[in-house]
Design a protein that fits this description.
single chain; mainly alpha; Jann2411-like fold; two-stranded antiparallel ribbon
Length: 211
């Protein structure tokens, strides 16, 4: 199984990475924590345990008090990155009609078999519907187990046929095409869709100027 090189430690002045949540599924959003996969310098959005804890919170997979960050160890981070790449290879192989690497299947299955986040109803007050929250003895690994289970259901179900790769050659994000016509081409119109429009406009303008 190819190993993902550890990124250099981020500079203290570097801004926190922005996580794209445009994949349409938790597992695809998690895969997107590594950007520009086919480039010379992939963009690691999980450079440290704090970043993984922040992703879990922003993904809505936080268990317990929202004001208290999820405790993530360096081992949790290493496991998360390894699982992320196994998820990516599994989904891509399934998308391309290829047989997934048995090691990737085993990695994802092992993670999916761990205890995941359990939905709980808070104590009701005043006759209103009780709010939902998540419970887990180990919130970090449980969140990753939830992501792995989502990948198993996606790779083994009919929605896999709707998973696409963004058509921007500089983008490597995967997304679930839930559009009515199933003609979505970009991970997001705000990201790559607008870039394609601008590039197309400039190309047409240059062509018109030469005529």
């Amino acid at each position: 199984m190819p190993r993902v090189p550890a990124p250099p430690p981020p500079d203290a002045a570097d801004p926190a990475p922005v996580f794209p949540f445009i994949g349409g599924r938790p597992c695809l959003n998690f895969v997107a924590t590594l950007g520009k996969r086919h480039g010379d310098t992939p963009l690691e959005r999980l450079p440290d345990p704090a970043a993984l804890a922040r992703w879990i919170g922003e993904a809505g997979l936080h268990a317990g008090d929202d004001d208290e960050p999820v405790h993530i160890t360096t081992d949790d981070l290493s496991h998360a990155r390894t699982l992320r790449e196994a998820l990516y290879r599994l989904v891509r192989a399934s998308m391309d009609g290829l047989t997934p690497d048995p090691a990737d299947v085993a990695q994802v299955n092992e993670a999916a078999a761990l205890p995941d986040l359990a939905p709980q109803l808070a104590e009701p007050h005043g006759g209103s519907l009780p709010p939902l929250y998540w419970k887990a003895d180990r919130p970090g690994p449980a969140a990753l187990a939830t992501v792995a289970r989502d990948a198993v259901l996606l790779a083994g179900g009919p929605l896999l046929a709707r998973v696409k790769k963004c058509e921007n050659p500089d983008c490597s994000l995967l997304f679930l095409d839930d559009s009515q016509a199933r003609r979505r081409r970009w991970c997001s119109m705000d990201r790559c869709g607008n870039l394609a429009k601008v590039a197309g406009y400039r190309s047409r303008s240059r062509a018109a100027a030469t005529r």
